[in-house]
Design a protein that fits this description.
This protein is α/β, with parallel strands linked by helices and 435 residues long. It contains 19 helices and 15 strands.
Length: 435
């Protein structure tokens, strides 16, 4: 009896010692948006409370550094266990085998994917594999400085304002009235000096700003976009509807003088900084910038949807997802984290912070409620912009293709070449990347 008791006590001590000595699995979680950090920290804290055997270390890297780190990490086979994915970079990571196919795990655990917008799931599907569920979605609208509109005596833009590529219509006229030189003359004044502009009507229209800028106007002019289809092999920027818009985009800088050339923005600061400093009256921006807008105290602001073009009103539609590194040593734990982050409870937590529109449609009202009684008044316009959206260009060589497009468009915006020549130069350089 005594021996049995002693053995039981010793066994209990061994088990207790083993449990106490058990180490947590540590997961690296990388993201790029500081504006979402607080919301996701709250979600991850709840995850760790429910999963005490897992420690999640959050790693913030700003947008440009983020992709440099991931690209370097992919080459070195040392990526974070779980990280944010973006449609623009998705194809390159899949092509290099860096992402874990989630389809077997989705089927094993009977994940209900019907709670997500189907188009968001489609972003992360390739050749029968599923590399992400859906984290959020975003559309594009214009932030505008109400104080600058008031000072210029210009009515706030309405939801039915219009534009056309021939003379810009109501859109350009509004921007001209809000563009001022150092003598306070607007761009419609015959004595206006375009070389001494102190306030531009519009900012952030560089070649790099495809998502929030020129691509939306191509769709609104009836153009296809950039590629004939996702993962297509044909560049369609030579369509007349696209060339017409690109020339119009150049004219905003070089003819109407309502937007700065790319180098001026670089020298003066980021477009967002210049908007918050009162140098730009308007900037096109995605719904992910709403949280950043909360820090604006110097002036009142609001958002308005895209102006209606010849073919209607369109917005780029994008959605992020969480990806898992294909070679993570902690696949099951990483899946548990991803399943939580893409799930209802986590998306509800994030929606309550008003950071990003949740990928679960049922939670959109929760997101909108976060803005009740505060700027902006018309945040729901981002939801309205989701009614008509264009096809996001996807290609395994997209990074290289887009670098060429951006470089050539910036040359056009600086006034060196016209739109037709610009597109010809792009075609000549990207042909081999599309095969």
């Amino acid at each position: 009896m005594r021996k049995s008791i002693v053995l039981l006590v010793l066994l209990a001590l061994v088990v207790a010692s083993g449990t106490a000595g058990a180490q947590k699995v540590t997961l690296r979680y990388m993201f790029w948006d500081q504006n979402q950090q607080e919301a996701y920290a709250a979600s991850i804290d709840e995850f760790m409370r429910l999963n005490p055997d897992i420690e999640v270390v959050m790693e913030l890297a700003e947008w440009n550094d983020y992709w440099t780190k991931l690209t370097t990490g992919m080459a070195a086979r040392n990526l974070p266990d779980v990280f944010w994915g973006h449609a623009a970079y998705f194809s390159a990571f899949v092509a290099r085998g860096a992402l874990l196919d989630l389809q077997p795990l989705i089927e094993r655990d009977n994940i209900d994917t019907s709670i997500y917008y189907q188009s968001l799931l489609d972003f992360w599907s390739y050749e029968g594999a599923q590399y992400g569920l859906a984290k959020d979605w975003d559309t594009i609208a214009f932030f505008y400085n109400k104080d600058l509109f008031d000072a210029a005596g210009v009515p706030y833009p309405s939801d039915d304002w219009t534009w056309n590529p021939q003379d810009g219509g109501e859109f350009v006229r509004t921007l001209q009235l809000l563009t001022l030189d150092d003598q306070g003359r607007n761009a419609l004044d015959p004595n206006f000096d375009p070389k001494k502009v102190v306030q531009y009507g519009l900012g952030d229209i560089g070649g790099a700003n495809m998502q929030a800028g020129w691509l939306n106007f191509v769709w609104m002019n009836g153009g296809t976009g950039v590629l004939d289809k996702p993962y297509g092999s044909k560049l369609v920027m030579n369509e007349p509807e696209c060339i017409e818009v690109l020339q119009f985009w150049s004219d905003l800088v070089n003819k109407y003088h309502v937007a700065p050339p790319p180098e001026a923005t670089v020298a003066g600061g980021s477009p967002w900084d210049l908007f918050t400093a009162g140098r730009f009256a308007m900037v096109p921006a995605g719904s992910w910038m709403l949280t950043a807008g909360r820090s604006i105290e110097a002036f009142s602001w609001d958002v308005v949807g895209m102006p209606w073009g010849p073919a209607g009103r369109y917005s780029a539609f994008n959605g992020l997802a969480h990806n898992i590194y294909a070679q993570t040593p902690h696949q099951e734990e990483a899946w548990r984290l991803l399943e939580w982050l893409e799930g209802y409870e986590s998306q509800k937590i994030v929606a309550e912070y008003g950071c990003v529109f949740p990928a679960i449609g049922e939670l959109v009202p929760t997101f909108l409620e976060a803005y009740a009684g505060r700027d902006p008044e018309n945040v729901a316009v981002y939801n309205d912009m989701a009614e008509n959206t264009g096809t996001w260009p996807m290609h395994v060589n997209w990074n290289e293709i887009f670098d060429i497009i951006q470089r050539e468009l910036d040359m056009m915006l600086q006034g060196f070449v016209d739109a037709e020549t610009t597109v010809a130069n792009i075609e000549m350089q990207v042909g081999h990347l599309l095969q």
